[in-house]
Amino acid sequence: MKTLLLGAASSVVIFAGAALAADMPLKAPPPKSTVTSPRWTGCYVGGNAGWIGGEDRLTLSPGGSLLTSVTAADRAVNTHTHEPHGSAFNGGAQAGCNLQIRQNWLIGVEGDFNWSGLREKSFTPYDFIPFATTPGARWDAHNEAVWKSLNWFSTIRARFGYVWDSVLFYPTAGLAIARIGGRFDYLDTVFGFEFAGSEAHTRIGPAIGGGVEWAFARNWSVKTEYLYMNFGSFSFDAPPNVPGATIRWGMAVKASEQIGRVGVNYKFE
User: Fold this and answer.
1) How far apart are CA 69 and CA 65, in angstroms?
2) CA–CA separation, 237 vs 252, rounded Å?
């Protein structure tokens, strides 16, 4: 009898506990975190294509020991600067990393390597040119042809931008390096003397610009960008096609370029 009563009492306690538990509200699971990394933070790779235009000054001038008796003013009248202003297609690849800070600001670094088809040429014929200070003396009629090429260029730049939702506005500045070639041909059309020379140099200079980039998908963005690069100047000269002649002609190449391009980037998670 005692065992039966204990069993009944235990059943009452179990059923009462179950009923009480059924009346109590269930504890909700903790909410999932909604904090995500900023849209622009991360590293990326991509490609670009666009236009490159030369803002170059190619200057031909006489020199050499034979002209030591010719005054600077007389040499200056036959010193000519050519500005061919050629343009061409360019394309390449880029990679970089961004850090989005304070919600609307971004700092980053980007490097690129690009091929260029820029080939510039200028041809100008000249008639007899009187000396400036020597009466009766004159330079012969002649033709001047100059060429300038840029085969490739690369830049490494910092970016500092303002983020407006999925759009990034940024200025950019850093260094550029390029392979630049110069060539000239000076032909005296009276006596047939010809001066022809060429050189190529790897030049380094500043690169500045800016752009707008739009993140159109989770990992993808498209940008449009402008850059200005200045590579300073270099010079070289060449003797004529006459053995033993001491007169020379030289060219100074002052190279700077403008670039307008579009690009697509893929950002890693």
Assistant:
1) 9
2) 9
User: How far apart are alpha carbons 22 and 31 in whole angstroms?
Assistant: 23
In the chain the beta strands, taken as DSSP E runs, fall at 42-54, 57-64, 80-82, 87-101, 105-126, 129-130, 138-139, 142-164, 167-188, 194-215, 220-238, 247-267
State which H helix or E strand residue 77 sits in.
none
Per CATH, the number for 39-267 is 2.40.160.20
Structural domain boundaries in the chain: 39-267
The region of weakest confidence among 16-25, 30-39, 85-94, 182-191 is 16-25
Query: C-alpha angle with apex 257: 256 to 259, nearest 5 degrees?
Result: 160
Cα–Cα distance between 19 and 22 in angstroms, integer?
A: 5
Per residue in 116-143, pLDDT tens?
Answer: 999 999 999 999 999 999 999 999 999 9
Distance CA 247, CA 75 (A): 12
CA distance to 147, 157, 158, 255, per residue, from 54 (Å): 12, 21, 24, 7
Number of other residues whose CB lies within 10 A of the CB of residue 159: 21
